[in-house]
Structure prediction request, 494 residues.
Amino acid sequence: MNPLVSTKCAGRVLMALAATISILLITGCGSSSGTITPLGGGFSNSSLTGQYVIKQTGTGVNQAGTSADPFSEITVFTADGKGNLNVLEDDFDQDGQQYPPGSGAGAYSIAKDGTGSLSFGGSNYAITLIDDSHFYLIEEDTFATSSGFGQMQDTTAFTAAPSGTYVFKAHNLDTGSRVGGITIASGAISGTEDLLSAGLLATTQSVASAVAMSAPNSTTGRGTFTLTDGTSFSYYVVNSTEFYFMSNASSLEIGQAEAQTGGPFSAATLANGTSYVFGSSGDTNISGPAGIHSAGVFTTDGVSAITGGAVDYVQDATVNTDLAVSGGGYTLASNGRGTVNLTLSGGSISPQIFWMVNGTRAYFLANSTAAVEDGTFSLQQAAPALSANFQAAFVMDGFDTTLKDRVGDFETTSTTAFNWNQAANAFDPSTGLGVLSTTGTSGTYGTAGPNGRVAAVVNGVTTSVVFYLSSPNTGFMVQEDADVGGVFAQQASQ
Prediction:
């Protein structure tokens, strides 16, 4: 049995801090209160059929039951389309050690709007499908919270280690972030990365494998590799062009890699008059985990200049709203590595170091000594706006007085209003106790500006959330009456 299982359910411990730490026994493994009324859609249990892999991070009561600490986790499971699932792999990192993979049976349910639940290994999750192959989720337990993303695996890609040119992004909580480009040949890794360590600016350095990538397990898609810097990882094949990876040593580092296409690149790749929407989050040296959330848009001239845009971000509870991009510059080399410097009116933001995944999308880190922050940016469709009568899945994380994780969907009912459903966990690391809730409510939103920025109110949840649209119904968001951010994507028509 995975030790995670025994801690999360059989142990049933909560940590409380008063003058000293005391352990409180609880009954049950966590349950939601309230009921979400499904929005539109044609999803069902049959929508989740096949083999899936989840990548998530969170905070929960540790294995010893002495404190609530961050964790990273990757899980592989199969779903039968009838409400039953089977966990094939459950790798879990916390407190500097990785616990042996777990497995076992579980259950799930999917409502017509794509919201639903997963339950396995003594843990419970709220889930929202984007389509039959992709979903957002959070952990909904009183002893732990998390947020993450899952997608269907292509088991036909389990025959050999990944091969080709890849771009990757990884985050190590409160410690560092890295982005880079690598070539993989016969399992051997070589390339270049930008490594940001907490309190230091990023350094560009070579990256290579000391131990080549092993062939993936034919059932789970899991393999291993070790880099010359001594870091050792497990990796998990998603399909022939993508894999996840996480530390199998003494850190919480977790990330993803995608095959790079569209090169060689140049400054003209970010073409004249085109705009790019970005979203990022990270940890600060003041607030710690989830201390910063950012979203924005910038426009390039195809040569070297940034000609406009806007940025919203919350850092250590300080709100920076609708800061105009008044200028700046960028570079882009043939291998896909670039930099963006945004000049803001009324504020400042750290420069970005990015690596192009393809001609329209990139992974980046924020080059700062005050935060460990990373994210993505993607090409914005011309003058996007929220459509009437569409539905999107979303996931959010962050904190105000407690750690906040939310997942759900919203459906626009007019050009100014929407319905909003969410499952949430408000987890207090000082007590080791999460408060679970489900909310069905409504909201209003304004007209999208020419830069795709939309201000919204979600009644009973937030009086101020800002969307930045990359396409009419997909984008990033920042909540500005808390330090919370997230992403949303239009759900597939069912």
Notes: The chain is about 0% helix and 60% strand. The radius of gyration is 21 Å.
